[in-house]
Amino acid sequence: MAKWKTLAAAAGVLILGAVPALGREDPGPAAYKQALDGKTVILVPMAMGEDLAQGWAHYIGTAVKEAGGKFEVRDPNWNTEAGAQAITDAIGSKPAAIVVQTPDLQSYSKLYKRAQQAGIFVIQVDNPSNYASDAFVGSNWETLGELETKAVIAGCGPNSSKKIGLIQGDQVNASSLDQYKGVQNVLKDHPDFQIVAAPDSNWDATTARNVAATLIQQHPDVCGIVDFWDQTAQGTAAAIRAAGKTGKIFLATTGGGEAADCKLLESGTIDALVATDVPNQSRDVSTLIKFLLQSGLKPGDAKTWLYTPEKITTKADLKPGTCWSIEENKAAEAAAAK
Amino acid sequence: MPSGGSLTQDPCMNIRSHIRQETVVLLLAVAIFIASSIFLNGFIEASNIVTLVRGVALLGILAIGMGIVVIGRGIDLSVVSILAISVACMLQLLNMSYSLPSALAITLAGVIVMGGINGFLVAYAEVPAIFATLASGTFVYGIGRSQWLSGDVVYMPDNQTGFMAMGELKFLGIPAEIYFFLGIAFLAFLALRFTRPGRFIYFMGDNFAAARNMGIPVRPVIVLQYIVSALIAFVAGVIMAASLHSMNTRIVNSTLLYDIILVVVIGGIGLSGGKGGIRNVIVGTLLIGILLNAMTILDIPDLYQKLIKASFLLVALIADGFINPRDEQTDQAGDI
Question: Which of A22, A171, A218, A256 maximizes the CB count within 10 A of its CB?
Answer without folding.
Answer: A256
